[in-house]
Amino acid sequence: MDAPRPSPRRYVLPVAFFNIVSISLFTFSHDTINETAARLHLVNPLYRWTPLQEEVRNVTRITYNAYLNACEGRDEFDSYTNECHDWFNVSLTMLDSLDTLVLMRLDDEYTRTRAYLAKTLSFRIVDRVSMFELVIRALGGLNAAFALTSDPLWREKAIELADVLLPTFNITQSGCPPMNTRVGAELTSQNEHDEPFDTSSTPADAGTLQLEMRTVSAMCGDKRYAVAADRCMLSMVNATPHDRLAPQRFDVQQVRFSGSRESIGASVDSYYEMMLKTWVAFGKQREDSALRATFERAMDLVYTRITGTSVGGATYVGHRYTKGTLQPEMEHLSCFLPGTLALGALHGLGGGRDGMAPDDYMPRARGLARTCASMADATVTGLAPEITSFNAMQPQAAPGFDRSLLRPEIVESLFYLCKIDDARDAPPYAQWGERMWRSMVHTAQAPGRPAGVLSGQGNLNMADGTERSAGGKLHSFVIAETLKYFFLLFDERPLEQMPARLDQWVFNTEAHPVRMRRQAA
Ligand code: DMJ
Predict the structure, then answer these.
(1) Bridge partners of 257?
(2) Cβ–ligand 1 contact at 267 (below 6 Å)
(3) N or C: which terminal CB in the chain sees fewer CB atoms within 10 Å?
(4) Which ligand 1 atom is at minimum distance from the Cα of 476?
């Protein structure tokens, strides 16, 4: 569809909305990655990893090496067939894995990856690619690699990528890039970006760019990246409904939400998640109070409009259509929510860490984490399906959704809860995680490949005699997120001794750590 040409900007950014202290966080010196990590308190030489952490590290090493050996430099890897796929042509799995390699001290793999990327990484023209995925995975990965290692290569590459992305923020009325857009270092004129494009995006696609773009500005002192992303987010926040959750479509030209489905899963999830995280990461500034308020309103709406209790007594977050009733199905993707609620509580929202009221964040986070962990019981493999139905006493895979992409959201939430919920009778989050880990290494093994090479799985229930099917690409989020969160969950130190501790760092929606900035004086 032809997009109308944008008229002159209607949105004037309040200057105060953006107020980043342009600091370069760490000075690079030519020390080793381990020395740098020690300086940042990411590595405590006296701490010994737990046996489970060693296991996770080993599986990560084996899976990553299988990728390197078959597909070094390519975007994605199918661990079953050994085939390689490209999407953005940016060595995506390498960029998405960088900070996992640092945190797990997989030094040989990190060194090989750095050498490869230093020689080859460039951002050539790609047609109609997802801005959201490029930002959360590639830019998020580069930003985190710089934050953890202080290696100027990563800052240079992050700025290079942000420069390639920046023009796409200027071609729509909202200031938000189209969902799929043409990007590339060789595109020089505005017109080359400003070609006909589909104006229909989603809250998550358009609204998950701010944290990464602001981080680039803070890294290099050039405010243009933050200003562009702030303008987009301000348009979206101003257009967000107050009496219901944002529906699943957002038109980047009309600056309007549309659709009748309310959920906190696909298409919406990280829109609200990032409001909290951006508010926290940039010092909880007064200028960001709209982010905080919109997040808090959304959490209230999740509670009043799409939270239910199953006949078996499980609290779930489902979806509803405007005129319909609440559907008792919960997406794996929605399981980021307990972790995000707990993070909100850690930062004083929703009754704080000691909140007790039913609509406070901690009790809700606790109940939903239990529900998400129970999704492992919905299939005979112990792998949670894409969507779980809570229509019966026991959780069941929703028809047509008994597959696993080895997504991170459940273990992500168990990690947050395990570190943040210090109530005496707190559930055994790490034990639930251990059970999930055992099922994963047992079931998600790519057939015919060395032990430890993981692969997505289908037909998890095999109820009708069909065989389980392995395969599909190994999504880069498996190493970036799923394995990282298992590793952090099994770290037995308390919150304040953790690497990338949660009161000083936030993880972007792809689990890339961003160091919190203090409020500007
Ligand atoms: C990841 O890329 C991110 O977590 C994103 O926010 C949602 N989808 C995948 C993982 O499931």
Answers:
(1) 250
(2) no
(3) C
(4) 2
Amino acid at 51: P
315 lines ligand 1 (CB under 6 A): no
Beta-carbon contacts of residue 257 (< 8 Å; ≥ 6 apart): 203, 239, 240, 241, 246, 247, 249, 250, 251
Q: What value does the mean pLDDT take over residues 79-99?
A: 96
Mutation choice for ligand 1 from 97, 263, 276, 407, CB with most ligand atoms inside 8 A: 407
pTM score:
0.92
**pLDDT tens-digit series, residues 341-359:** 999 999 999 999 999 999 9
Confidence of residue 19 (pLDDT cuts 50, 70, 90): very low
Ligand 1 atom closest to 511 (CA) = 4
The residue nearest atom 10 of ligand 1, judged by CA position, is 407
98 CA to centre of own chain: 15
Ligand 1: nearest atom to the Cα of 509: 6
At residue 237, φ and ψ (nearest 5 deg) are: -60, -40
CA 455/CA 79 separation, integer angstroms: 6
CB–CB of 34/43 below 8 Å? yes
pLDDT over 80 at 230, yes or no: yes
| Average confidence (pLDDT) over 38-47 | 67
Q: Measured from the CB, is residue 408 less than 6 Å from ligand 1?
A: yes
Helices 409-420/361-374 angle, 10° precision: 140
Give percent of the chain with pLDDT exceeding 90: 81
Residue 459: CB atoms within 10 Å: 17
Q: Is 270 in the pocket of ligand 1 (CB under 6 A)?
A: yes
